[in-house]
Amino acid sequence: MLEKLIEEFKQIFHSSEAIRCFFAPGRVNLIGEHTDYNGGHVFPCSLSIGTYAVVQKRHDRKIRMYSKNFSEAGVIESSLEQLTYKTEDDWANYPKGVMDTFKKHGYDLPFGFDILFFGNIPNGAGLSSSASIELVTCVLLNKILELNIDMMDLVKMAQQAENEFIGVSCGIMDQFAIGMGKENQAVLLNCQTLEYQYSPLQLTDAVLVISNTNKRRGLADSKYNERRMECERALSDLQTSLSINSLGDLTKEQFEKHKSLIQNEVDCKRAKHAVYENERTKEAVAKLQNGDLKGFGQLMNESHCSLRDDYEVSGKELDALVEAAWLQEGVIGSRMTGAGFGGCTISIVQKAQVDRFVEKVRNTYYEKTSLEAEFYVVTVGEGARELTLEAV
Hints:
single chain; alpha+beta; Ribosomal Protein S5, domain 2; Alpha-Beta Plaits; 13 strands; 40% helix
């Protein structure tokens, strides 16, 4: 595939400079949803699918970008002096935001670039196509400009670009999982301290299956920021009597003892999810490390119920997919993943039952929603990096 992308790049940009290729994966969160910005733990892994970038230097200050995923938009042009958010530039705002963030950190961008992007992550599905394009841009700038920036700092800059340039108050999980991912391992991340621990994904005779509702969701347009505000209000109420920095500082027992401090009933439900999900995530990883995959799957199921009932971010499509999965033979656990309001579910399914699982869930889902779901059996891959190709 890389050879084809390079050929297409040459046709579009009439290559005269050395061409380099980069890749950043998508990510899926196995458990620990909406805990990242609440100072809790998450347990994501990077995927083998992601975003490719083929790039060459320019001799001027122009940025020319083309996406195979949005070919109808053609080549989008900007310049290093005009890195401003423009609604009409759509997807290209993400790489522009990264370049703007590099400049704000004092890094000199002495020349422009021609870049072809291609992602095999379903757009808007909740597998973090936005963070993937941010990280692939970070890595290509870092490598081509020989800046030697540490990956963790690139992760933070990508998050800053999304927060400040795009205007989405995301936590750090997506960028972290994509930048720091390791093959066949998930990573337990404390989002408050950024302490992390890799954990081998030993699924033995099972695989990860992502099911896409095909209900498009835009993170910036969803109720994501509203949920964040609700949690911040709950935290503020709790801090009137408790010395805590985040909801992630609380145990379930502490929350139950002090939840009456929270003035608003809805805010209390949101905080309950954040606290219980954080505890659930730590427990789930311990079970996985002890070889208790069934116990891990049960906690995935409980996570979905909490996201549905307390955090209210699932919706009929995600619920239909998860509930259909729960009924199938060979399903160890299933839950929504990502911000919610559409997007994807993640299921652990016994290999021998995958074909039957896909057929049964697809049919049940269509009967309930009149939508066609898509299914991806995914493997866990390496984080953002430069790709080498002998022919380049």
